[in-house]
Specification:
This protein has 419 residues and is of the alpha/beta class. Helices cover 23% and strands 26% of the residues.
């Protein structure tokens, strides 16, 4: 397969004009440009022997497929916790530009459902049933060591280290886990250390009461393992104080003040629920002004398909979630009968377009926050996240108005606007 684009987003917010990507056996094998001939040397040595019959796709703009690292699925059944067991989400996500997903799971009081969902996801990591489905690259566990639930079901923050290890053993493909620093401080950060020893990225979050002391303690432990931690959906179910730093304060900076307590500590990467509902665009703009693009992952935290109508509802671990109008414009998902946000109904393609329209971010830089950064945060950037020789052939094609026209996954057309 050959892909030609007037503008080709490559890596690090860069692009080339009149770019051409060659995909052979699901892998990117060369990148070239008619205006920059030296790029033709970016080849792995593979060639397509049947050039005359080669499949060629053309677009105005092409970029790597989006990587979603915080999504609970889009639908497919009447119980949200069971979404990932069904094909619906994996078949719908390509239409929204999402070619890879690190699927989010939670841990309600009855762990039997979580166990079935995890088993299903682990099978999908190893084998994809259709070339037209988004690929599962791993799992993001939102809990169980969480102190402030937000819209989550009841979890198990009191579990012992041994019980915690058993949960981890269920998920060999676990890439990242949300964990609350305040509750870990009270337990000597023992479970945080277990994550780090297993190579799992810790995501600090769901903690409105954690203090500067709690966060610094978690960062010191991460520093011992030379690991950069992450912060789960910055601003949501976390707090900010201009005098008494909490979790949000740590997510707003690229470097720390020269104070003894901060010396040598890693600065966390962050994720933003970028649906323009979870946080106001003014607040989001402040984050974009203060943080580097490569340290921000734009996520959906989706729990319902954006195609669903206002008033649609489904079960959620003993309660219900409902899609409603947002008072500031747009739509949101809430715990039914309340104003508590319980995820979103947004899609990554909508976030991509908002980044360009609302914040005037060039498309090749917007892609960084939807592809490269999330892949790096979850340690899957050796496979996906950029158009680079040796990576999987996941490419999105756009017209001049930046409407998505084709989604290519592993060198196969998974979705087309014309079909």
């Amino acid at each position: 397969m050959k892909i030609k684009a007037e503008i080709l987003a490559t890596k690090g917010g860069e692009y080339i004009r009149d770019g051409c990507v060659q995909i052979t056996d699901s892998t990117i094998t060369s990148i070239s440009s008619s205006s920059s001939s030296h790029l033709s040397n970016h080849s792995s040595g593979h060639s397509n022997t049947s050039v005359d019959e080669e499949e060629v796709h053309e677009a105005y703009f092409a970029c790597p497929g989006f990587v979603e690292i915080h999504c609970h699925g889009l639908g497919g059944c009447d119980e949200m916790l069971e979404y990932w067991i069904h094909d619906y989400s994996f078949e719908k996500l390509p239409a929204y530009g999402t070619t890879s997903v690190v699927a989010s799971v939670t841990f309600p009081a009855d762990l039997s459902t979580s166990a079935r969902v995890i088993a299903s996801l682990e099978r999908r990591v190893k084998h994809t049933s259709s070339k037209k489905q988004t690929r599962v690259m791993g799992i993001h566990a939102e809990g169980p060591i969480i102190v402030d639930l937000g819209g989550l079901p009841h979890l198990h923050p009191e579990m012992s280290v041994e019980e915690f290890k058993k949960i981890l053993d269920m998920m060999p493909s676990l890439k990242i886990m949300t964990i609350s620093p305040s509750i870990e401080h009270d337990n000597g950060y023992t479970r945080l250390r277990v994550l780090l020893e297993r190579g799992i990225t810790p995501a600090l979050g769901h903690d409105k009461t954690c203090s500067e002391l709690h966060v610094l303690g978690a960062l010191r432990v991460c520093s011992e393992y030379k690991v950069v931690p992450h912060i789960t959906h910055l601003f949501n179910v976390s707090s900010f104080n201009h005098r008494l730093p909490s979790l949000v304060n740590f997510g707003l900076v690229e470097s720390y003040p020269h104070l003894p307590d901060y010396a040598g500590l890693p600065v966390p990467t962050i994720e933003i629920v970028a649906d323009m509902v979870h946080i106001h665009p003014l607040t989001f703009g402040a984050v974009l002004a203060g943080r580097k693009r490569e340290n921000i992952a734009c996520i959906t935290d989706a729990v319902l398909d954006s195609a669903f109508h206002v008033g649609y509802s489904c079960k959620y671990s003993g309660t219900e979630i409902e899609l409603v109008e947002h008072e500031g414009g747009g739509r949101k998902v809430v715990l039914k009968g309340t104003n508590t946000i319980a995820g979103s109904c947004s899609a990554q393609i909508q976030i991509f377009q908002s980044l360009m329209k609302v914040f005037k971010i060039p498309p090749e830089q917007a892609v960084t926050m939807l592809s490269e950064a999330p892949a790096k945060i979850t340690k899957i950037d050796d496979v996906v996240g950029a158009i680079e020789v040796g990576k999987r052939g996941d490419v999105l094609l756009f017209d001049k108005d930046f409407n998505l026209i084709k989604t290519i996954i592993a060198g196969h057309v998974a979705w087309s606007s014309s079909s």
